[in-house]
Amino acid sequence: MRVLVVEDDPKIAGFLTQGLESEGYSVERAADGEAALEHIQAHRFDLVLLDLMLPKLSGLEVLRSLRELDTSTRVIAVTARSSVEDRVEGLDLGADDYLVKPFSFVELMARIRSLFRRTSQPLSRTLEVGELEIDRLERVARRGARVTPLSLRELQLLELFMRHMDEPLTRATIADRVWGYQFDTGTNVIDVYVNYVRKKLRELGLEPIRTLRGIGYILERDGCAISPTDPSCS
């Protein structure tokens, strides 16, 4: 597996490189955002460990450019910034996971294993439930002629709901299946993203996600929610 470590602190970069190479990974390093983009444009990587606070070009700018070029490379954002707003911004731009400094190498390896377990299965391009369809390649949701764009995280969250139609999903389950790690107690990142997805579905004329107080959320198969043009809804 080929890994790009993007980190401007030479001690941290050396620590990560040594550890990953000892686990059998092929590692390249970049010390700033511009160098990171040069590596990404020149080579194909399975995983990018991306510090968000970089010289010359920020990690968020690197992430945005990477996702414009490629939606399949796994990215773990590695940063000292731990606020909910920072997490949302990085995840919304397409990071697959978020690791806050300081962290142990054991935790990093667990995150990497979890990430590749979640993304290793081949998937068809589209998924349909009732009148709702998602297109993974174009990263959009459709209902008939209506189309709305989805961020990578919105796409992953909506797909989880569609694959578990009529099943209550707890916040812990959503965190594990979509983000691959447990959120701090009291965080509202999941609720924020559910509301993002709800807004996108409303643009399509759908209202299928219901809040289960004290439990989580459920995407209901009810024809009037997911297929409002069904004759039975009149």
Commentary on this structure:
This protein has 234 residues and is an alpha/beta fold. The chain folds into two domains: 2-119, Response regulator (Rossmann fold); 126-233, Winged helix-like DNA-binding domain superfamily/Winged helix DNA-binding domain (Arc Repressor Mutant, subunit A, Orthogonal Bundle). It has helices at residues 10-22, 33-42, 59-69, 84-92, 105-119, 152-163, 171-179, 189-203, 223-226, and strands at residues 2-6, 26-30, 47-51, 74-79, 97-100, 126-129, 132-135, 140-143, 146-149, 169-170, 209-212, 216-219. Helix 6 (152-163) packs across helix 7 and helix 6 packs across helix 8. It is elongated. The chain starts with a strand and ends in an 8-residue tail after the last helix.
Q: What's the SSE blueprint?
A:
Elements: E1 2-6, H1 10-22, E2 26-30, H2 33-42, E3 47-51, H3 59-69, E4 74-79, H4 84-92, E5 97-100, H5 105-119, E6 126-129, E7 132-135, E8 140-143, E9 146-149, H6 152-163, E10 169-170, H7 171-179, H8 189-203, E11 209-212, E12 216-219, H9 223-226
Parallel strand pairs: 1-2, 1-3, 3-4, 4-5
Antiparallel strand pairs: 6-7, 7-8, 8-9, 10-12, 11-12
Helix pairs in contact: 2-3, 6-7, 6-8
Give me some keywords for this one.
12 strands, four-stranded antiparallel sheet, 234 residues, Rossmann fold, five-stranded parallel sheet, alpha/beta, single chain, Arc Repressor Mutant, subunit A, 2 domains
From the N-terminal CA to the C-terminal CA, the straight-line distance is: 55 Å
Q: Report the sheet-strand fraction.
A: 15-25%
Bin the helical content: 40-55%
CA-atom Rg in angstroms: 19 Å
Indicate the CATH class of the largest domain.
Alpha Beta
Low-pLDDT stretches: none
Elements, N to C (H/E): EHEHEHEHEHEEEEHEHHEEH
Structural class, please? Answer: alpha/beta
**Average pLDDT across residues?**
82
- Number of DSSP helical runs: 9
CATH topology of the largest domain: Rossmann fold
What is the total tally of β strands?
12
Q: Name the shape in a single word.
A: elongated
**Widest sheet: strand ordering:** 2-1-3-4-5
In CATH, the homologous superfamily of the largest domain goes by the name Response regulator
Can you tell me the number of structural domains?
2
The biggest sheet, with number of strands, parallel, antiparallel or mixed sense and barrel status, is: 5 strands, parallel
Q: What CATH architecture of the largest domain do you see?
A: 3-Layer(aba) Sandwich
